[in-house]
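Our consortium's second objective concerns turning raw sequence data into structural hypotheses that experimental partners can test. To show how far this objective has progressed, the report includes one record in full. It was chosen at random from the queue rather than selected for favorable results. The single chain below, 477 residues long, was entered without modification.
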Amino acid sequence: MANDFIVALSELIQSLLIDTLHIIGDIFDRGPRADYVMDELISFKNVDIEWGNHDISWMGAAAGNEACIATVLRIATNYNSFDVLEDGYGINLRPLSMFADKVYSGDEAECFRPHLLDDNKYDSVAPELAAKMCKAITVIELKLEGQLIKRHPEYDMDTRLLLDKIDYEKGTVLIEGTEYELLDKHFPTIDPSNPYELTTEESQLIETLKYSFLHSRRLQKHIRFLYSHGSMYKICNNNLLFHGCIPMDEKGEFLVLKTDEGNFSGRNLMDYFEEKIIDAYFVDGDDEPDRKQSAVDMMWYMWAGAVSPLFGKDRMATFEHIFLADKALSKEHLNSYYEFSSKEKYCDKIFDEFEMDKEQAHIINGHVPVKVAKGEKPVKANGKLYVIDGGLSKAYHSKTGIAGYTLIFNSHHLALAEHRQFVRDGVNTPEMYVTETMKRRLLVKDTDVGKELEKQIFDLEELLECYSLGLIKEKSK
């Protein structure tokens, strides 16, 4: 029984050591098996998730947003993540592969060659076919995004409408008055007179794929877990946890999103988006079709919109990144939050917005990988801001120089574990260093749980006193 005993004891130690696990977003898209990660998270007793932009694209896909479905498939085919789609979630990719092989026969689709960072154990796809599949779904994605932008002028994303700026005979695109040559000029499914309209085959394909996403039991189970244990932000023990940013303008003021339902900024913006995320999945489309459709469409905006706290950039330059040689054109500029939040007074401004004690508060932030190799530090604003996205997945290791961070918060201190790339049967122990020591050891009563326990104790004492004074009579058996 020795082995079983050691395993049981190890699991007991782990459960006692980790009181609560906080995931600061982006479970999906950059690792080989996000479904395995979700299964593991579901097994934890106390876990919460602050949604990331990659999580929201999958949540949007599971809610039926066709642009999100195309986005998820583009990234998956580009990063060779066929296992998670087919074996993990049972998404039927056969129609996409047949469509791509037929429409792009003879097309090398060189711009769409997959990043072969991880091997597929069960669903291996030849890189040549994967490239064609990626191109096919990318063109569909650009069309669907264009339809969304045209349907919602309030998104203010007309600069992302580029399919109608292409000269299909010359193979060039006009961007802000300048003409650029395209790296890929073969677009057999695009009608130059109506470039955002899907062909009949493309419409049938996206409907088939949508059916797979909506009826994947395992995917829907995981998405429901993201909903039940997730939120846009969380305040825990005077720590503000969120994935991306609190959008700001160039003056350091909270950026305003203007909608038909009102104007939103700061904390209200985060709350507004959370309400839309919930509506997209749980509102009955038969009873409230307009409310449902508005929320489902908004899921894509949260993936790529300039005022989305989850995205935090001025634009999603997918088109430029794929089709243009000049990489300066695909530069995505971070929201001003990322400049201002490194200064203590702007962190205090955020703490005031969220009604927190700014003398003891911290922001725990994800989203933007910390480029340790270039000298970047994860702790900023005189210790008030922690950026813990060091880039866990292989796709970022060359940029960051590490394999991500875990922030550990206990009664004695805050500490960062700096991870190394996982090496099977090798030495890859994370480097641990304390970043802040508590002025005095925190007690249970200093925590959120402790404050809740104090309320319960007060209520029980009140109840006991009422019995003692006879104000409440004990019931006879």
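The partners drew two points from this record. The mean pLDDT is 92. The chain is about 40% helix and 15% strand. Both points have been shared with the crystallography group to help prioritize constructs.
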